[in-house]
Amino acid sequence: MTLATPVLPLTIPERxxxxxxxxxxxxFIDGDDAQPVRWSELxxxxxxxxxxxxxxxxxxxxHVALLGPTTRDLVTTIAASWLAGATVVVLPLxxxxxxxxxxxxxTRRRILGADTALLVVDPELAPFLEAQPGDPLTLGYxxxxxxxxxxxxxxxxxxxxxxxxxxxxxxxxxxGVMLPHRTVLANVDAIAEALVxxxxxxxxxxxxxxxxxxxxxxxxxxxxxxxxDLVLAGPQTFMASPARxxxxxxxxxxxxxAGPNFSWVLAARALKRLDGLDLSPLRVALNGAEPVDPAxxxxxxxxxxxxxxxxxxxxxxxxxxxxxxxxxxxAPMSGLRVDAVDQRVLETERYAAPVDQGADGSKAFARLGTxxxxxxxxxxxxxxxxxxxxxxxxxxxxxxxSVMTGYYRRPxxxxxxxxxxxxxxGDLAYLIDGELVLCGRIKDVIIVAGRNVFPExxxxxxxxxxxxxxxxxIAFGVEGRxxxxxxxxxxxxxxxxxxxxxxxxxxxRDVTGLAADDxxxxxxxxxxxxxxxxxxxxxCRDRYLGEELQxx
Length: 552
Hints:
The protein is α/β, with parallel strands linked by helices. The protein is built from 15 helices and 29 strands.
């Protein structure tokens, strides 16, 4: 007789009650300090906080906004908000801001736009947010120390909003993605199935910000609802010393970790100069949140080999806030696999004609696996909506169990985002036997003389020019009198700006066969980026056209 798979509850509080029985360990990292805590202990504290929230009238239908770095208090309050039946809104802590005024303005806009009932602020950030008329009640963590025995669980509602996740704003103004409990858990379950997650064996290690879907849903929620051992640091700790990341993986026997492409560049540099590491337990080194660069992966694998890093552990994947996080995953331990195509045919005919890797005129893309359980993907013509065949480039669309219900209080944006029950991602892509290959964002493609020039190609190449800060280059198109032209804006770290500008011009010509219409070198730290570190091409273009960039 075949035993039926048990049906798991569809709300996060019910799942937390199940995970409590396993009693895994979460270790909070702050600089060189480590604070291990049992999940059961943290959840007991969360029940006390939830009781206090309920006594203040916070419950089902309430939105709790949280502002603070990654700490035990922040994680406890996230769990407490769910236990109280409220919706969690984790506010971004942008990694770079031109001014504190801009940070405050963006934060207040999100707080009010989310209809926040209660704002919980870390004491370090409280001085920056002076109360104004119309602001919600603002408290600190110490104001919410209730009695766990007083906690009463609200009636479970799988359709209630668990998370209001703001998009990164890389191509537009941030929008509030609505994710009910059933949607979040559908994706968390899909991740567990696709990764063959074993709570008795796996150890997750993360420094990803909890205001980003990869950190909040992909790592924290996935670990919390299963009691998986988790080593958790903040992005500031990682950025202060990127070598710590691989150190944590070695010290704690990390089996699962994740980061954007740029972080793996930093990890590879650390691996080349460090000794005595053991990365052999690592089986999922997820590379996502920005385009996966095959050269970065190859460099990582080479640098990590002497530390026991297995090439198959590299895990290029696709995800986005509108599907909670995970969209497509490759098979575990399959490593990076690339698809080499004819770049001229791709740019002129939007067809991914296969060629030998490394051949003249070839371009290599990472293969990002198939849709995770519960999701379907397809590629359609952006203009006609006709479904495209294998290797025909079009817009990626997704439907299934973990697709958002819409954008909060944005019926216009919600309607525009869907084609029936298919979500329009805005990404250019093609399929190979159901496996996804991403080419770029539709809005970002530069059309020059009938060719589709992908800005990532220009940015990646210019980043290697001596005097240019790697990861701090933006390319975009501008309308000229006769055609669209290519503009490159790059942060410079050189005294000889004229030479750098000349090298960038030559680089653009080598990559695209076209002359750049303009090359602008700006001061370090001034390129617009999202809170998750993605370059904001549309905002940079607007600032360029408005002559608002700060020249070096």
